[in-house]
């Protein structure tokens, strides 16, 4: 198991995933989700230390993801990207 903090990137743009992976690896353990629902599933599975969240996505907006994260009762820092 890695001692590096984990970051979950929730963004529908694969270019943003590539950019963030290039900038943040290997200092962080990175995981990516391409939609809000997928991101919420991964939050429960991997328990990230930080979430980088796109605000504008189809299917479920970043604001809706934030609302659902709050309902979990877990306090995970979120940085909103737009």
Q: What would your notes on this structure say?
A:
The protein is an alpha/beta fold and 82 residues long. 40% of the residues lie in helices and 23% in strands. A 4-stranded parallel sheet has the order 2-1-3-4. Helix 2 runs parallel beside helix 3. The longest helix has 11 residues, at 14-24. The radius of gyration is 12 Å and the shape is globular. The chain starts with 5 loop residues before the first strand and ends with a strand.
Features:
globular; 82 residues; four-stranded parallel β-sheet; 4 strands; alpha/beta
Q: Which helices and strands appear, and what pairs or packs with what?
A:
Layout: E1 6-10, H1 14-24, E2 29-33, H2 36-46, E3 50-54, H3 62-72, E4 78-81
Parallel strand pairs: 1-2, 1-3, 3-4
Helix pairs in contact: 2-3
């Amino acid at each position: 198991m890695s001692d590096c903090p984990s970051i979950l990137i929730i963004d529908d743009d694969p270019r943003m995933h590539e950019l963030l992976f290039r900038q943040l690896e290997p200092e962080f353990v990175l995981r990516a989700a391409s939609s809000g629902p997928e991101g919420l599933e991964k939050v429960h599975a991997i328990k990230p230390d930080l979430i980088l969240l796109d605000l504008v996505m189809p299917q479920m907006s970043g604001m809706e993801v934030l609302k659902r994260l709050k309902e979990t009762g877990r306090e995970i820092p979120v940085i909103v990207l737009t």
